[in-house]
Design a protein that fits this description.
Shape: globular
Strand order of the largest sheet: 3-2-1-4-5-11
Radius of gyration: 22 Å
Low-confidence stretches: 1-51, 55-64
Mean pLDDT: 83
Structural class: alpha/beta
Helix content: 25-40%
Oligomer: single chain
Strand content: 15-25%
Largest sheet: 6 strands, mixed
Length: about 375
C-alpha cells in the first residue's frame, strides 16, 4: 500500500505506433508524460525540464492509437488495467501472481486468458501490453512473452522489472529515488545518466528493513527474551502466543510453505508494539528505518544526485505506513541530503506500467525496458 491518500496526478498516455520487425530495441518517440502537477498538460508542446526533472520525458499532442493494457504483476496477484481509448473507460482484471523462479511468458499467457474471458474484445485488436513484473531481469527477452500473448490480440510488449514501474508511477519524470518496502524491499534511483538498484536481493541475503526483516527480528527478540539473552518484550505475548510451544516455533516455521509471508505478517505486531512504547520493538523499527534510509541515500549517491538536484524521494509499501519508521527515515535522509524532497506518490505501479511507452531512448531507464513487436 502507498502511504496516505494517493493524489493520482497521472496524465493519460498514448503511443504513436510504427511498423517494425520483431525484435528488442530502444526507441525514440513522442509521448505524454507523467509529471508533477505544475507541469504543462497535454497538449502543449515540449516542456523545458527543471533542474529536478528528467529531460527525456516530454509532452506531446495526445492522439488515439492502439489500445494499451497496463499490467502490474506481483507475487501475490497480477492486475491488468485497460487504459482509456477505444475500449472506453478503464477496467481492471485481477489474476494470479507470478512465481519469480519460473519463466514469465506462460504465466502472462495465463493472465491474458483471464482478461480475454472477461473482455473478449481484446482478442480482436492489435493492442500493446506494458508490463511491470516482479522477477523480470534486466536482460529479460520480451520476444517469448510476445509470442505467448499473440493469440490474445497482442501486437506489442513492453516489459520491465516492477521497480521501474513503481518508480514511474510514484515519481514520473522527476530525478530521485523510490524505496518500496513490503514483504521484500527494493530501492531504485534515477539520475540524469544512470540508474542504481539497491537491495531487493531476497529474504535470505537482503531485503533489509522489509516486513520480513521486521518479523524476523521480532521473532529473534522473542527467542532472546525466552532464553534470557535479551530484554523482556511484549512481543513474547503478541507473537509468542501464536505457537503452542515456543521452543518448537522454528520447526513450525520451517515446515510452513508460506513461511516468508507468515514471518512478514509479524511486522505489523512489531510496529504496533513500538507505537505503544515497547522498547525492544521500538529499537527494531529504528534499525529498520536506518536500513531503508541508508539504501535510499546510497541510491541517490550512486546516481550522482546531490542537494543541488533537489531529488524527489518516494517511500512506498506497507512498512512505510508505520509513522515511527516513516518519520525516522525522513530524519535520516534529511540529515544526509538536506536538498532531497520527500514527496507523496503521484500514482502506483499500474500507472507506471502505463507510462512505459513514454520513456525515450535517451533515458537511463530505457536500458531496463524491453520491447518486442
Amino acid at each position: 500500500m502507498i502511504l496516505g491518500a494517493i493524489p493520482v496526478a497521472v496524465a493519460t498516455m498514448f503511443l504513436i505506433t510504427a511498423g517494425r520487425q520483431l525484435h528488442s530495441y530502444h526507441r525514440t518517440r513522442t509521448h505524454c508524460s507523467i509529471g508533477p502537477r505544475d507541469r504543462p498538460g497535454c497538449p502543449g508542446g515540449r516542456a523545458t525540464p527543471s533542474r529536478h526533472t528528467l529531460s527525456y520525458m516530454s509532452n506531446a499532442v495526445c492522439s488515439d492509437s492502439s489500445p494499451i493494457l497496463a499490467v502490474d504483476a506481483g507475487q501475490s496477484s497480477t492486475r491488468v488495467r485497460c487504459e482509456p481509448g477505444p475500449w472506453g473507460a478503464g477496467w481492471i482484471v485481477t489474476s494470479s501472481g507470478v512465481r519469480t523462479a519460473l519463466p514469465l511468458a506462460q504465466q502472462f499467457a495465463t493472465v491474458m486468458r483471464d482478461v480475454a474471458t472477461a473482455h473478449p474484445e481484446i482478442t480482436r485488436s492489435d493492442c500493446t501490453v506494458a508490463i511491470g513484473s516482479s522477477g523480470a531481469r534486466d536482460d529479460e527477452d520480451p520476444i517469448a512473452v510476445l509470442h505467448a500473448l499473440k493469440p490474445f490480440g497482442v501486437s506489442r510488449v513492453l516489459l520491465a522489472h516492477d521497480s521501474v514501474t513503481s518508480y514511474l508511477g510514484a515519481l514520473g519524470n522527476q530525478l530521485g529515488v523510490v524505496t518500496a518496502s513490503g514483504t521484500g524491499v527494493i530501492t531504485l534511483a534515477v539520475g540524469r545518466h544512470s540508474v542504481a538498484r539497491v537491495d531487493g536481493w531476497g529474504y535470505v541475503i537482503g531485503d533489509a528493513g522489509s516486513a520480513f526483516w521486521l518479523g524476523r527480528h521480532g521473532l529473534d527478540a522473542v527467542m532472546r527474551a525466552h532464553d534470557g539473552r535479551g530484554e523482556p518484550t511484549v512481543l513474547s505475548e503478541t507473537i509468542g502466543s501464536d505457537f503452542d510451544d515456543i521452543e518448537a516455533a522454528y520447526l513450525d516455521l520451517h515446515a510452513d510453505p508460506l513461511m516468508v509471508s507468515r514471518i512478514a505478517a509479524y511486522s505489523a505486531k512489531v510496529t504496533a508494539a513500538a507505537e505503544e512504547g515497547d522498547h525492544v520493538s521500538h529499537d527494531i523499527c529504528v534499525r529498520a528505518a536506518h536500513e531503508l534510509a541508508h539504501s535510499t541515500v546510497t541510491g541517490l549517491r550512486q546516481t550522482e544526485l546531490t542537494d543541488a538536484d533537489s531529488p524527489a524521494v518516494g517511500l512506498l509499501g506497507g512498512v512505510m505506513k508505520s509513522q515511527l519508521i516513516h518519520a525516522a527515515i525522513t530524519r535520516e535522509i534529511s540529515a544526509a541530503m538536506p536538498g532531497a524532497r520527500i514527496v507523496e506518490p503521484l500514482g502506483e505501479g499500474l500507472d507506471g506500467a502505463a507510462a512505459l511507452p513514454t520513456v525515450g531512448a535517451d533515458s537511463p531507464l530505457s536500458q531496463r525496458i524491453h520491447v518486442a513487436q
